[in-house]
Amino acid sequence: MTDEPKPAPPIRRRQLGYRLGELRDLAGMTQDDAVKETGLSRSTISQIENAERAILEKNVRLLASAYGVQSPELDMLLRMARESNKRGLLVAHADVAANFARDYMELESYATEVWTLETAFVAGLLQVPSYVRAVRLISKPDATEAELQSAVDLRVQRQERLTGTDPLRLRVLLDESLFDRVVGGADVVAEQAAHLIEMSELDNITIQVVPKEAGPYRGMGYSFSVLRFEPTPGMDVAYAEGWLSATYYEKRREVRAHADLFEQIAAAALSPQATRDRLATLGALRSGN
Q1: Virtual torsion, Cα 279, 121, 106, 108, nearest 10 deg
Q2: N or C: fewer beta carbons within 10 Å in the chain?
Q3: By its UniProt entry, which InterPro entries does this protein fall under (predicted)?
């Protein structure tokens, strides 16, 4: 009888384990050196770095001290250890958050910056409630009112990171062609366009439309996000979501490739002010004004 494959560890645990191993290497230490410095067993350190066990905050503190890690990175590592096995706001919204998207939302909850290219729908962090409902009905036409409201509540909770004393920095590229699809009706599209204009005025948010006149571009039709974690760039991750699954790109060359692609497309996109002008035009066209 063949053993069932073990499920992949949560991505937060993988990211934390990877970073601790990287910090050990940067300190010029082997795992045996770390054993001597921390008193932890070699198997424990190996399992931590390979994300094969829950990572305890006390062990992170020991390892970080041995590697000379100080705040603010130490604070980030300890927070990750505390939250590495939690689901947070997703527990209450499991009915509307796909399993493969939950790790992304957890990562998003403590990322310092998110870059997103969207070619089909407006970025989730910028969707108004009426647009959220319309998108949900596309994927599940028989959704109940309770499910629709749960989808809205989840979006609203995620969007809270965009405001406050230490808001998430957000860069969004929107392919203009996505506005050709009237999601939820003309009034919803107009409301959504007005909201994008309003949000783009915030200092921490940059929105750019990739206009049709830019022509074909590399990566056209491919939506993805890059999540960044200062001051620990080695934990940055790229994410691409499909219909039934998602791919996490965790290797540095993969993340860099996505970041480079984002910058190339951004260079061809409208400026933030020209984007606001274009969004105002698109909203007016859809509303018939």
Answers
A1: -30
A2: N
A3: Cro/C1-type_HTH, DUF5753, Lambda_DNA-bd_dom_sf
Looking up tokens 């984007």 gives 275
- Report, in this order, helix, strand and coil percent for the chain, each rounded to 5: 55, 10, 35
Question: Residue 104: pLDDT band by 50, 70, 90 thresholds?
Answer: confident
Higher pLDDT, 243 or 67: 67
What is the C-alpha to C-alpha distance for residues 222 and 252, in angstroms, rounded to an integer?
20
246, β-bridge pairs? 241
- Asked if 148 and 136 count as a contact pair (C-beta separation under 8 A), the reply is yes
Range of the structural domain that residue 96 is part of: 89-287
Beta bridge partners of 206: 171
Closest by CA to 21, choosing from 57, 69, 70, is: 69
Domain membership flag for residue 201: yes
156, 160, 161, 163 alpha-carbon torsion, rounded to 10°: 140
List CB contacts of 40: < 8 A, sequence separation 6 or more: 34, 59, 62, 63
pTM: 0.76
Task: Please compute the mean of the pLDDT values over residues 17-26 and round it to a whole number.
Answer: 90
Q: Are residues 68 and 94 in the same domain?
A: no
Tokens 């096995």: give the residue. 85
Q: What is the biggest distance separating any 2 CA atoms in the chain, rounded to whole angstroms?
A: 72
> Are residues 77 and 99 located together in one domain of the fold?
no
Nearest in space to 115 (alpha carbons), one of 73, 43, 54, 169:
169
What is the length of the chain? 289
The number of folded domains in the chain is 2
Residues 238 and 138 in one domain: yes
Per DSSP, the chain holds a count of helices (H) and strands (E) of 11, 6
